[in-house]
Amino acid sequence: MGRFWCESGQLHFRRFLTRTPIVIPLRAVTRIALTAWHAGRWSGTRRIIVLVWQRDGMELHSGFVLTRSRHDIPEVVARIEAEIAAAKSADSTVQG
Q1: 16 domain residue, yes or no
Q2: 70: helix, coil or strand?
């Protein structure tokens, strides 16, 4: 568990009791998956939100427990998807 926020086209996730957040460029995200298992760990009744993204030609899978409530997951996923769309839209506007 930890705290996440989206800023400047990036998702930041800082686990509790750590100082440095994990940062994922949202334009690099190719899909979002929900699972109970990730990296050999089972989350019990919680769902892990997995961001599948590209860096240096590699496909990476980063899993996060972003909410304690299963009822909040659709809202959290929708928020992240909107941030991804905005980041990719801003990218295409700058390039085009």
Answers
A1: no
A2: helix
Supply the range of the domain harboring residue 52: 28-95
Alpha-helix runs per DSSP H in the chain = 73-95
Q: Which two tokens stand for residue 74?
A: 């659709």
pLDDT digits 0-9 by tens, 17-75: 999 999 999 999 999 998 887 877 777 767 889 999 999 999 999 998 887 788 888 99
Collapsed DSSP state (helix, strand, coil) of residue 93 = helix
Q: Is residue 21 part of a domain?
A: no
User: Does the residue 8 lie in any domain?
Assistant: no
Domain membership flag for residue 5: no
**pTM of the predicted model, to two decimals?**
0.82
